[in-house]
Amino acid sequence: MASKFLNHHVSSYPKLFLTSIGNSKNKKFSHSLTLHSSSTKLNKTINANNNVFVRSSNSKVHFASPRFEMEPDPSLINDDLKPTTPSQRTFSGLEMASLWIGLVVGVPSYYLAGSLVDLGMAWWQGILTVVAANMILFVPLVLTGHPGTRYGISFPVLARSSFGIHGAHIPTLLRALVGCGWYGIETWIGGETIFILLPNSIKLTTLSKSLPWLGTSPLEFFCFLVFMVAQLLIVWKGIEGIRKLEKYSAPILILLTSLLLLWSYVNANGFGHMLSLSSKLSNSEFWSLFFPSLTANISFWAALALNIPDFTRYAKSQNDQIIGQAGLPIFMGAFTFVGIVVTSSTKVIFGYVISNPIQLLGKIGGFATTIFAILGISLATITTNIAANVVAPANALVNLNPMLFTFRRGAIVTAFLGIVFQPWKLLKSSESFVYTWLVGYSALMGPIGGIILVDYYLVKKTNLNIEDLYSRNPLGAYYYSKGFNVAAIVALVVGILPVIPGFFHKVGTFKSVSEMFVVIYNNAWFVSFFSAGLVYWILSCLKKKRDGNQCS
Question: Which region holds residue 67: left if phi is over 0, alpha if psi is between -120 and 50, else beta?
Fold first, then answer.
């Protein structure tokens, strides 16, 4: 079914300009169309749903921002939440792909790949696990990105269509919570990089001694704060600054990754030795590890897959959006190969596995290596962290109170909340990183994704009334029950509940649980995604039948 929708929308919408006239009885809604050339010929048709389709003879996509005939509610809109204008749609397919290079090439991606080897997988088993997960995720990624490009709306605004004008705060704040956690993890990694640069005369002082109440040393915590401030200076330049950062960082990151691979190739005496590390797992042990690892890898980008409209709303066309999204499985597969191969080579070079690249670079030593390490890890961390973990929480806070929050203010709050997660504890071991953090939050991201996709494609057939997304009118399409869609909230709860016993068992709260709950937890994203989506579809169909409409 997903492929059917994907093929239909890929073939149709890149060539069409769609404006929603609106289907509410007492309102009208129109768009202003900006033509790029006076010689462009347009053919206009109106379908049964009162949607205007405008096709240009040169098949170029013409976008325009909505002109609201009724004033939007000021508590639901500001400059950061408005649909994008033609001048803001600057992301080409190549630039969208560059975004993924900046996102993928980073310490957590490397660490995730290395963790699979550390947990006992052979190099090829680890690569197949990562590639399989990202091929699966590619489908919801493109499908969720579609409304962003078609309507120019961000994730918080899209969530209003399925959860309701007020109910949208639930998924956006859950997404923001995960983003804040990731922001803390990435910033801690960047702070560790600064710590490496410090001379031993400083690192050997009492400032480097861990404080029990803090869980880390004052010096490392200070480096963490310095890196946080450095990122906020970049965020201050807005989405255009982020686009340029990702675009120009991509080739540098590719070069530095290649140098690391070359180093391990030379020191391990070729790929034969680098890939000599075999699996430590029996057949049954591998499969018991494979499924939670698959879930962890899907979870790795599942949060970003939810708020991908925050970026696709700036894409020039659906073709650019889809071509750009293909960068995820391609670049993630390539970087995973580097991460796993280099991690495997450490067994040959040092006699034991080193899955943390910062520790590895510290072992290599040398002034030049240190400089490249600082440059590479800092750049990789900043490009990943800002795009993946600042944009969504900041937009969620803007959506919560547009009159109080701007994108910049939201980014500052995100930064401080990242401290609360104490990321230095989450990165203590491969098991806590993979099983507790990644698998755990997938139970929150999965059901939200399932509900939004079922609502957009199966319930609303990709037709949204943009004006109603910014209205508190009780007759509006997305006001539902006092601004909350009860069906979406019930489906969300149903998607999360089965995973809770397994999560508490994993963190040690429950000493033992049924094997069924362990299996559910190990497959948290799949279980929550499909169960929530199914429940939402059933409840939506029942409501349609009560209203005298047909459910298809």
Answer: beta
3-class SS at 481?
Answer: strand
Q: Rounded to the nearest 5°, which phi and psi values hold at 54?
A: -120, 120
Longest dimension (CA), the chain: 77
Is the Cβ–Cβ distance between 370 and 361 less than 8 Å?
Answer: yes
Of 426, 371, 370, which is closest to residue 189 (Cα–Cα)? 426
Q: Is the dihedral of CA 473, 475, 478, 480 positive or negative?
A: positive
Distance (Å, rounded) from C-alpha 247 to C-alpha 11? 28
Identify whether the C-beta of residue 196 lies closer than 8 Å to the C-beta of residue 373.
yes
Which two structure tokens, joined as six digits, stand for 128? 């197949």
Residues 472-496, buried b or exposed e (16+ Cβ, 10 A)?
Answer: ebeebbbbbeebbbebbbebbebbb
Nearest to 279 by CA among 126, 115, 114, 121: 121
**Burial (0-12, 13-18, 19+ Cβ within 10 Å), 276:** middle
Per-domain residue ranges of the chain: 2-546
Q: Which residue has the tokens 């080409």?
A: 92
Alpha-carbon separation of residue 394 from 164, 325, 440 (angstroms): 20, 22, 22
Give the angle 29-35-41 at the CA atoms, nearest 5°: 105
Residue-by-residue pLDDT tens, the chain, 552 positions: 444 444 444 443 333 333 333 343 334 443 333 333 333 333 333 333 333 333 333 333 434 445 456 678 888 888 888 999 988 998 999 989 988 888 888 877 887 777 787 788 888 888 899 999 999 999 999 999 999 999 999 999 999 999 999 999 999 999 988 889 889 988 998 898 888 778 888 888 888 888 888 888 999 999 999 999 988 888 887 767 777 777 778 788 888 888 888 989 999 888 887 777 677 888 888 888 898 889 888 888 888 899 899 999 999 999 999 999 999 999 998 988 888 888 888 888 988 888 778 778 778 877 777 777 778 888 888 888 887 788 888 888 888 888 888 888 998 999 999 998 888 877 776 556 666 777 788 889 999 999 999 999 999 999 999 999 999 999 999 999 999 999 999 999 999 999 999 989 887 888 889 999 999 998 999 999 999 999 999 999 999 888 877 776
Q: Write the CATH number of the domain with boundaries 2-546.
A: 1.10.4160.10
Going by C-alpha positions, the residue among 545, 379, 448, 515 that lies closest to residue 179 is 448
